[in-house]
Amino acid sequence: MPYYRQVGEIPRKRHTQFRAPDGSLYAEELMGVEGFSSDSALLYHRHLPTAIVDAVDVTVPRDTAPNLPLKPRHFRTQDLKWEAPADVDAVTGRRLLFGNADVRICFVEATQPSPLYRNAAGDELLYVQTGTAVIETIYGSMAVGDGDYVVLPTSCTYRVVPGDDLRLLVLEASGHIGPPKRYLSTKGQFLEHSPYCERDLRGPVEPLLVDDTDVEVFVRHRAGVTKFTYANHPFDVVGWDGALYPWAFNIRDFEPITGRVHQPPPVHQTFEGPNFVVCSFCPRKVDYHPLAVPVPYNHANVDSDELMFYVGGNYEARKGSGIGLGSLSLHPSGVTHGPQPGAVEGALGVDYFDETAVMVDTFRPLELGEAADACEDPRYAWSWAKRGPDWS
Ligand SMILES: [Fe+2]
Question: What CATH number does residue 342 fall under?
Protein backbone atom coordinates (compact mmCIF):
# COMPACT_ATOMS: atom_id res chain seq x y z
CA MET A 1 0.00 0.00 0.00
CA PRO A 2 1.26 3.46 -0.80
CA TYR A 3 0.77 5.25 2.48
CA TYR A 4 1.90 4.95 6.07
CA ARG A 5 -0.18 3.70 8.96
CA GLN A 6 0.50 2.98 12.60
CA VAL A 7 -1.56 0.72 14.85
CA GLY A 8 -1.00 -0.12 18.54
CA GLU A 9 2.22 0.45 20.44
CA ILE A 10 5.59 0.88 18.75
CA PRO A 11 8.92 2.27 20.02
CA ARG A 12 9.88 5.83 19.05
CA LYS A 13 12.93 4.63 17.08
CA ARG A 14 12.92 1.56 14.87
CA HIS A 15 15.26 -1.33 15.75
CA THR A 16 15.59 -0.24 19.36
CA GLN A 17 14.74 -2.05 22.59
CA PHE A 18 10.97 -2.28 23.06
CA ARG A 19 9.82 -4.00 26.24
CA ALA A 20 6.60 -5.49 27.55
CA PRO A 21 5.31 -4.42 30.99
CA ASP A 22 7.10 -7.44 32.52
CA GLY A 23 10.42 -6.20 31.16
CA SER A 24 10.82 -8.79 28.41
CA LEU A 25 11.73 -7.68 24.90
CA TYR A 26 9.13 -7.75 22.16
CA ALA A 27 10.27 -9.56 18.98
CA GLU A 28 10.60 -7.13 16.07
CA GLU A 29 9.76 -8.44 12.58
CA LEU A 30 10.32 -6.67 9.26
CA MET A 31 7.86 -7.69 6.54
CA GLY A 32 9.28 -6.34 3.29
CA VAL A 33 8.38 -6.98 -0.34
CA GLU A 34 10.63 -7.05 -3.40
CA GLY A 35 13.71 -8.06 -1.47
CA PHE A 36 13.20 -5.35 1.17
CA SER A 37 13.50 -2.73 -1.58
CA SER A 38 9.84 -1.66 -1.54
CA ASP A 39 6.94 -1.33 0.92
CA SER A 40 7.40 -2.83 4.35
CA ALA A 41 5.98 -3.02 7.85
CA LEU A 42 7.62 -3.43 11.24
CA LEU A 43 5.64 -5.63 13.63
CA TYR A 44 6.25 -6.19 17.34
CA HIS A 45 5.39 -9.67 18.61
CA ARG A 46 4.93 -10.92 22.14
CA HIS A 47 6.53 -14.22 21.08
CA LEU A 48 9.11 -15.33 18.53
CA PRO A 49 7.40 -15.38 15.10
CA THR A 50 9.95 -18.00 14.06
CA ALA A 51 8.98 -20.70 16.59
CA ILE A 52 7.47 -23.65 14.69
CA VAL A 53 7.07 -27.12 16.17
CA ASP A 54 5.72 -29.10 13.20
CA ALA A 55 5.30 -28.96 9.40
CA VAL A 56 3.14 -31.29 7.29
CA ASP A 57 2.65 -31.24 3.52
CA VAL A 58 -1.10 -30.90 2.80
CA THR A 59 -0.87 -30.04 -0.89
CA VAL A 60 -3.98 -30.86 -2.90
CA PRO A 61 -3.44 -30.77 -6.68
CA ARG A 62 -5.49 -28.09 -8.42
CA ASP A 63 -5.57 -29.08 -12.07
CA THR A 64 -6.76 -26.91 -14.92
CA ALA A 65 -7.51 -27.63 -18.58
CA PRO A 66 -7.12 -25.31 -21.58
CA ASN A 67 -10.17 -23.47 -22.93
CA LEU A 68 -10.73 -25.93 -25.79
CA PRO A 69 -12.42 -25.54 -28.12
CA LEU A 70 -11.78 -21.84 -27.77
CA LYS A 71 -15.13 -20.11 -27.26
CA PRO A 72 -16.92 -17.58 -25.08
CA ARG A 73 -18.21 -19.29 -21.96
CA HIS A 74 -20.72 -18.63 -19.19
CA PHE A 75 -20.42 -20.05 -15.68
CA ARG A 76 -23.08 -19.82 -12.98
CA THR A 77 -21.47 -19.68 -9.53
CA GLN A 78 -25.03 -19.35 -8.20
CA ASP A 79 -25.49 -23.03 -9.17
CA LEU A 80 -22.33 -24.35 -7.45
CA LYS A 81 -23.05 -26.89 -4.71
CA TRP A 82 -20.84 -28.03 -1.83
CA GLU A 83 -21.02 -31.57 -0.43
CA ALA A 84 -21.41 -30.31 3.14
CA PRO A 85 -22.42 -26.63 2.89
CA ALA A 86 -22.58 -26.17 6.67
CA ASP A 87 -18.87 -27.03 6.99
CA VAL A 88 -17.32 -24.81 4.31
CA ASP A 89 -14.66 -22.26 5.21
CA ALA A 90 -13.16 -19.51 3.07
CA VAL A 91 -9.72 -21.12 2.81
CA THR A 92 -10.01 -24.90 2.53
CA GLY A 93 -13.46 -24.62 0.86
CA ARG A 94 -12.23 -22.58 -2.11
CA ARG A 95 -13.03 -24.12 -5.47
CA LEU A 96 -10.84 -23.35 -8.44
CA LEU A 97 -12.66 -21.74 -11.37
CA PHE A 98 -9.77 -20.54 -13.54
CA GLY A 99 -6.03 -20.37 -13.41
CA ASN A 100 -2.78 -19.60 -15.15
CA ALA A 101 0.78 -18.92 -14.03
CA ASP A 102 -0.17 -15.44 -12.81
CA VAL A 103 -3.44 -15.88 -10.95
CA ARG A 104 -5.85 -18.51 -9.64
CA ILE A 105 -9.50 -17.46 -9.44
CA CYS A 106 -11.63 -19.31 -6.89
CA PHE A 107 -15.12 -19.12 -5.46
CA VAL A 108 -16.46 -20.09 -2.04
CA GLU A 109 -19.68 -19.88 -0.05
CA ALA A 110 -18.29 -19.93 3.50
CA THR A 111 -20.27 -20.85 6.59
CA GLN A 112 -17.51 -21.66 9.11
CA PRO A 113 -14.44 -19.79 10.39
CA SER A 114 -11.38 -20.67 8.35
CA PRO A 115 -8.15 -21.99 9.78
CA LEU A 116 -5.30 -19.55 10.09
CA TYR A 117 -3.75 -19.15 6.67
CA ARG A 118 -1.30 -17.14 4.65
CA ASN A 119 -0.39 -17.09 0.99
CA ALA A 120 3.38 -16.88 0.65
CA ALA A 121 3.25 -17.10 -3.16
CA GLY A 122 1.53 -13.76 -3.76
CA ASP A 123 -1.12 -11.24 -2.75
CA GLU A 124 -4.76 -12.22 -2.51
CA LEU A 125 -7.76 -10.14 -3.49
CA LEU A 126 -11.11 -11.15 -2.01
CA TYR A 127 -14.30 -9.71 -3.50
CA VAL A 128 -17.32 -10.01 -1.20
CA GLN A 129 -20.25 -10.73 -3.50
CA THR A 130 -22.79 -11.10 -0.68
CA GLY A 131 -22.87 -11.30 3.11
CA THR A 132 -20.48 -10.18 5.81
CA ALA A 133 -17.29 -11.39 7.46
CA VAL A 134 -14.57 -10.37 9.84
CA ILE A 135 -11.08 -10.75 8.41
CA GLU A 136 -8.74 -11.34 11.34
CA THR A 137 -5.06 -10.73 10.58
CA ILE A 138 -1.74 -10.28 12.36
CA TYR A 139 -2.26 -6.54 11.74
CA GLY A 140 -5.73 -6.48 13.36
CA SER A 141 -9.29 -7.11 12.19
CA MET A 142 -11.46 -5.66 9.45
CA ALA A 143 -15.24 -6.01 9.16
CA VAL A 144 -16.20 -6.45 5.52
CA GLY A 145 -19.46 -6.72 3.61
CA ASP A 146 -20.93 -6.95 0.15
CA GLY A 147 -19.06 -4.98 -2.46
CA ASP A 148 -15.80 -4.93 -0.52
CA TYR A 149 -12.51 -5.70 -2.16
CA VAL A 150 -9.98 -6.92 0.41
CA VAL A 151 -6.27 -6.91 -0.45
CA LEU A 152 -4.21 -9.33 1.67
CA PRO A 153 -0.49 -8.85 1.10
CA THR A 154 1.80 -11.81 0.56
CA SER A 155 2.55 -13.72 3.77
CA CYS A 156 -0.09 -11.89 5.82
CA THR A 157 -1.46 -14.51 8.23
CA TYR A 158 -5.24 -14.26 8.46
CA ARG A 159 -8.50 -16.09 8.84
CA VAL A 160 -12.04 -15.40 7.66
CA VAL A 161 -14.90 -15.50 10.17
CA PRO A 162 -18.08 -15.44 8.08
CA GLY A 163 -21.39 -13.80 8.94
CA ASP A 164 -24.51 -14.75 7.00
CA ASP A 165 -24.56 -15.59 3.29
CA LEU A 166 -20.84 -15.04 2.61
CA ARG A 167 -19.94 -15.52 -1.06
CA LEU A 168 -16.38 -14.67 -2.06
CA LEU A 169 -14.56 -14.44 -5.35
CA VAL A 170 -10.88 -14.99 -4.54
CA LEU A 171 -7.91 -14.03 -6.69
CA GLU A 172 -4.64 -15.66 -5.68
CA ALA A 173 -1.91 -13.76 -7.51
CA SER A 174 1.66 -14.81 -8.18
CA GLY A 175 2.87 -11.33 -7.24
CA HIS A 176 1.59 -8.07 -5.84
CA ILE A 177 -1.78 -6.36 -6.31
CA GLY A 178 -2.26 -2.61 -5.99
CA PRO A 179 -3.83 0.49 -7.51
CA PRO A 180 -2.94 1.27 -11.15
CA LYS A 181 0.35 3.17 -11.24
CA ARG A 182 -1.12 5.88 -13.47
CA TYR A 183 -3.38 6.93 -10.57
CA LEU A 184 -0.46 7.40 -8.17
CA SER A 185 2.07 10.19 -7.76
CA THR A 186 5.74 9.24 -7.86
CA LYS A 187 5.60 9.23 -4.06
CA GLY A 188 2.51 7.01 -3.93
CA GLN A 189 -0.39 9.42 -3.29
CA PHE A 190 -3.59 8.96 -5.30
CA LEU A 191 -3.86 11.67 -7.97
CA GLU A 192 -6.93 13.84 -8.61
CA HIS A 193 -8.01 11.86 -11.70
CA SER A 194 -8.09 8.57 -9.80
CA PRO A 195 -11.59 7.10 -9.36
CA TYR A 196 -10.78 6.42 -5.69
CA CYS A 197 -8.33 7.65 -3.10
CA GLU A 198 -6.99 7.16 0.42
CA ARG A 199 -10.24 8.33 2.06
CA ASP A 200 -12.01 5.32 0.53
CA LEU A 201 -9.62 2.75 2.02
CA ARG A 202 -9.96 0.96 5.34
CA GLY A 203 -7.33 -0.92 7.31
CA PRO A 204 -6.99 -2.49 10.75
CA VAL A 205 -7.24 0.11 13.52
CA GLU A 206 -6.19 -1.80 16.63
CA PRO A 207 -4.10 -4.86 17.47
CA LEU A 208 -5.71 -8.30 17.62
CA LEU A 209 -4.18 -10.29 20.46
CA VAL A 210 -4.92 -13.99 21.03
CA ASP A 211 -3.17 -16.14 23.65
CA ASP A 212 -2.80 -19.75 22.56
CA THR A 213 -0.15 -22.39 22.02
CA ASP A 214 0.47 -25.07 19.36
CA VAL A 215 -1.57 -23.29 16.67
CA GLU A 216 -1.99 -24.61 13.12
CA VAL A 217 -1.37 -22.28 10.18
CA PHE A 218 -1.91 -23.32 6.54
CA VAL A 219 0.68 -21.76 4.24
CA ARG A 220 0.23 -21.70 0.48
CA HIS A 221 3.70 -21.45 -1.03
CA ARG A 222 5.25 -21.77 -4.44
CA ALA A 223 5.39 -25.59 -4.28
CA GLY A 224 2.05 -26.37 -2.61
CA VAL A 225 0.47 -26.06 0.85
CA THR A 226 2.16 -26.85 4.19
CA LYS A 227 0.43 -26.95 7.56
CA PHE A 228 2.70 -25.54 10.24
CA THR A 229 2.18 -25.75 13.95
CA TYR A 230 3.37 -22.59 15.70
CA ALA A 231 4.47 -22.64 19.32
CA ASN A 232 2.34 -19.52 19.95
CA HIS A 233 -0.67 -17.94 18.29
CA PRO A 234 0.48 -15.65 15.44
CA PHE A 235 -2.01 -12.96 16.53
CA ASP A 236 0.41 -11.60 19.13
CA VAL A 237 1.36 -8.25 17.53
CA VAL A 238 1.07 -5.37 20.00
CA GLY A 239 1.80 -2.75 17.36
CA TRP A 240 3.03 -2.18 13.83
CA ASP A 241 3.73 0.59 11.39
CA GLY A 242 4.60 0.91 7.73
CA ALA A 243 3.04 0.89 4.27
CA LEU A 244 2.41 -2.86 3.94
CA TYR A 245 -0.83 -4.14 5.48
CA PRO A 246 -4.24 -5.55 4.50
CA TRP A 247 -6.84 -3.06 3.35
CA ALA A 248 -10.37 -2.92 2.04
CA PHE A 249 -12.15 -0.76 -0.51
CA ASN A 250 -15.85 -0.91 -1.39
CA ILE A 251 -16.86 -0.99 -5.03
CA ARG A 252 -19.57 1.63 -4.28
CA ASP A 253 -16.75 4.09 -3.53
CA PHE A 254 -15.38 3.71 -7.06
CA GLU A 255 -16.39 6.93 -8.89
CA PRO A 256 -17.13 6.01 -12.52
CA ILE A 257 -15.49 8.02 -15.28
CA THR A 258 -18.12 8.90 -17.90
CA GLY A 259 -18.22 10.82 -21.17
CA ARG A 260 -20.34 12.00 -24.10
CA VAL A 261 -19.46 8.84 -25.99
CA HIS A 262 -18.58 5.35 -24.80
CA GLN A 263 -15.53 5.18 -22.53
CA PRO A 264 -12.98 2.39 -23.08
CA PRO A 265 -12.53 -0.44 -20.55
CA PRO A 266 -9.39 1.00 -18.85
CA VAL A 267 -11.47 3.80 -17.24
CA HIS A 268 -12.94 1.11 -15.01
CA GLN A 269 -9.56 -0.19 -13.84
CA THR A 270 -9.29 -0.55 -10.07
CA PHE A 271 -6.24 -2.77 -9.46
CA GLU A 272 -3.26 -4.14 -11.29
CA GLY A 273 -1.54 -7.44 -10.57
CA PRO A 274 1.15 -9.52 -12.30
CA ASN A 275 -0.11 -9.84 -15.89
CA PHE A 276 -3.72 -9.02 -14.99
CA VAL A 277 -5.97 -6.08 -14.15
CA VAL A 278 -9.20 -5.81 -12.16
CA CYS A 279 -11.92 -3.34 -13.20
CA SER A 280 -15.16 -2.18 -11.54
CA PHE A 281 -18.28 -1.51 -13.59
CA CYS A 282 -20.53 0.53 -11.32
CA PRO A 283 -23.98 2.16 -11.59
CA ARG A 284 -23.42 5.33 -13.59
CA LYS A 285 -24.79 8.01 -15.83
CA VAL A 286 -24.12 6.76 -19.32
CA ASP A 287 -22.89 8.37 -22.49
CA TYR A 288 -24.71 11.65 -23.12
CA HIS A 289 -23.92 12.63 -26.73
CA PRO A 290 -27.33 13.08 -28.45
CA LEU A 291 -26.54 10.13 -30.73
CA ALA A 292 -24.60 8.06 -28.18
CA VAL A 293 -24.72 4.25 -28.18
CA PRO A 294 -24.42 3.55 -24.44
CA VAL A 295 -23.57 -0.18 -24.55
CA PRO A 296 -20.09 -1.28 -25.64
CA TYR A 297 -19.09 -1.70 -29.26
CA ASN A 298 -18.11 -5.20 -30.39
CA HIS A 299 -14.57 -5.60 -29.22
CA ALA A 300 -11.58 -7.86 -29.77
CA ASN A 301 -9.52 -8.07 -26.58
CA VAL A 302 -6.45 -8.95 -28.60
CA ASP A 303 -3.96 -9.61 -25.82
CA SER A 304 -6.12 -10.67 -22.89
CA ASP A 305 -8.79 -13.04 -21.66
CA GLU A 306 -11.75 -11.10 -20.24
CA LEU A 307 -13.58 -12.47 -17.24
CA MET A 308 -16.67 -10.60 -16.04
CA PHE A 309 -18.39 -11.33 -12.71
CA TYR A 310 -21.95 -9.99 -12.56
CA VAL A 311 -22.82 -8.91 -9.02
CA GLY A 312 -25.55 -6.26 -9.13
CA GLY A 313 -28.34 -4.78 -11.24
CA ASN A 314 -29.00 -5.96 -14.76
CA TYR A 315 -26.03 -5.88 -17.10
CA GLU A 316 -27.36 -4.09 -20.18
CA ALA A 317 -25.07 -5.59 -22.83
CA ARG A 318 -25.76 -9.18 -21.73
CA LYS A 319 -29.60 -9.05 -21.73
CA GLY A 320 -31.05 -12.19 -23.32
CA SER A 321 -27.93 -14.32 -22.75
CA GLY A 322 -29.02 -16.22 -19.61
CA ILE A 323 -26.55 -14.31 -17.43
CA GLY A 324 -27.70 -13.46 -13.89
CA LEU A 325 -26.28 -12.36 -10.55
CA GLY A 326 -23.35 -14.61 -9.72
CA SER A 327 -22.64 -15.41 -13.37
CA LEU A 328 -19.17 -15.21 -14.86
CA SER A 329 -18.58 -14.70 -18.58
CA LEU A 330 -15.24 -15.59 -20.13
CA HIS A 331 -14.46 -13.90 -23.42
CA PRO A 332 -11.03 -15.18 -24.43
CA SER A 333 -8.48 -13.61 -26.71
CA GLY A 334 -9.08 -14.78 -30.26
CA VAL A 335 -12.88 -14.30 -30.37
CA THR A 336 -14.59 -10.93 -30.85
CA HIS A 337 -17.50 -10.34 -28.50
CA GLY A 338 -20.07 -7.61 -27.98
CA PRO A 339 -23.62 -6.83 -26.93
CA GLN A 340 -26.26 -9.51 -27.28
CA PRO A 341 -28.65 -9.04 -30.24
CA GLY A 342 -31.08 -6.21 -29.53
CA ALA A 343 -29.02 -4.75 -26.67
CA VAL A 344 -27.73 -1.81 -28.74
CA GLU A 345 -31.19 -0.80 -29.91
CA GLY A 346 -32.63 -1.32 -26.44
CA ALA A 347 -30.10 0.97 -24.80
CA LEU A 348 -30.53 3.98 -27.13
CA GLY A 349 -31.73 7.00 -25.19
CA VAL A 350 -31.07 5.38 -21.80
CA ASP A 351 -29.23 7.74 -19.43
CA TYR A 352 -28.39 5.48 -16.45
CA PHE A 353 -27.18 1.89 -16.07
CA ASP A 354 -27.88 0.14 -12.79
CA GLU A 355 -25.24 -2.57 -13.12
CA THR A 356 -22.31 -3.73 -11.03
CA ALA A 357 -19.68 -6.09 -12.33
CA VAL A 358 -16.09 -6.99 -11.52
CA MET A 359 -13.84 -7.66 -14.50
CA VAL A 360 -10.53 -9.52 -14.49
CA ASP A 361 -8.46 -9.27 -17.66
CA THR A 362 -5.51 -11.64 -17.80
CA PHE A 363 -2.69 -11.22 -20.29
CA ARG A 364 -2.04 -14.97 -20.41
CA PRO A 365 -4.84 -17.44 -21.23
CA LEU A 366 -7.07 -18.64 -18.44
CA GLU A 367 -7.47 -22.37 -18.07
CA LEU A 368 -10.59 -23.95 -16.61
CA GLY A 369 -10.70 -25.55 -13.16
CA GLU A 370 -13.00 -28.05 -11.51
CA ALA A 371 -15.56 -25.43 -10.42
CA ALA A 372 -15.83 -23.99 -13.92
CA ASP A 373 -16.69 -27.44 -15.29
CA ALA A 374 -19.28 -27.85 -12.53
CA CYS A 375 -21.29 -24.72 -13.35
CA GLU A 376 -20.92 -24.03 -17.08
CA ASP A 377 -23.93 -23.05 -19.17
CA PRO A 378 -23.06 -24.65 -22.55
CA ARG A 379 -25.50 -22.49 -24.54
CA TYR A 380 -23.74 -19.16 -24.07
CA ALA A 381 -21.29 -19.29 -27.01
CA TRP A 382 -24.22 -19.49 -29.41
CA SER A 383 -26.34 -16.74 -27.84
CA TRP A 384 -25.48 -14.16 -30.53
CA ALA A 385 -26.42 -16.40 -33.50
CA LYS A 386 -29.20 -18.20 -31.61
CA ARG A 387 -28.06 -21.51 -33.03
CA GLY A 388 -25.20 -23.92 -32.44
CA PRO A 389 -24.31 -27.37 -31.00
CA ASP A 390 -25.91 -26.84 -27.55
CA TRP A 391 -28.59 -24.29 -28.51
CA SER A 392 -32.12 -25.79 -29.10
FE1 LIG B 1 -15.96 -7.26 -23.15
Answer: 2.60.120.10
